[in-house]
Design brief:
Radius of gyration: 15 Å
Number of domains: 1
Shape: globular
Order of helices and strands: HEEEHHH
Number of strands: 3
Largest sheet: 3 strands, mixed
CATH architecture: 3-Layer(aba) Sandwich
CATH topology: Collagenase (Catalytic Domain)
Distance between the termini: 39 Å
Structural class: alpha+beta
Bound molecules: zinc ion
Strand content: 5-15%
Number of helices: 4
Strand order of the largest sheet: 1-3-2
Helix content: 55-70%
Length: about 130
């Protein structure tokens, strides 16, 4: 059983509250799940499930992100959180494409979606670093 300190949870939730309006996603309600176990065989520190219809997102935090916080890798944590929030931007298109395309395209779609989300993330992080956000 992993104990997530309140200071860590506050840090994550403050980051989301900072970034949500910057990404013009202030109308989304974002909640959190703190997982005890690392996802099997996956090097993931967070994941999001988006409900477009209800303007909700649930971010699942994995122990790896807590480890990053303990190691003071704040830049990595911010990148992860912005990435997860940016999934909201592409999710509808991605889910639709996934649903109506043959399975043979799914790996490619996953790859391209992750790349697009990360490119959007990089733009916003870079704008913040340049003081333009
Ligand atoms: Zn992603």
């Amino acid at each position: 059983m992993i104990e997530y300190p309140k200071t860590f949870k506050d840090y994550i939730e403050d980051l989301v509250n900072y970034w949500k309006p910057k990404l013009l996603l202030h109308h989304y309600d974002i909640s959190f799940k703190y997982q005890d176990k690392q996802k099997a065989n996956v090097d993931t520190d967070a994941a999001i499930i988006v409900s477009d219809r209800y303007l909700q997102g649930t971010i699942t935090i994995f122990p790896q992100l807590l480890k990053a916080w303990k190691e003071k890798n704040y830049k990595d944590i911010e990148n992860t959180i912005v990435h997860e929030i940016c999934h909201i931007i592409t999710d509808n298109l991605f889910m639709g494409a996934h649903k109506y395309s043959p399975e043979i395209f799914h790996d490619l779609l996953d790859h391209e979606n992750e790349k697009l989300v990360q490119m959007i993330t990089n733009i916003f992080i870079s704008m913040k670093e340049k003081g333009k956000l």
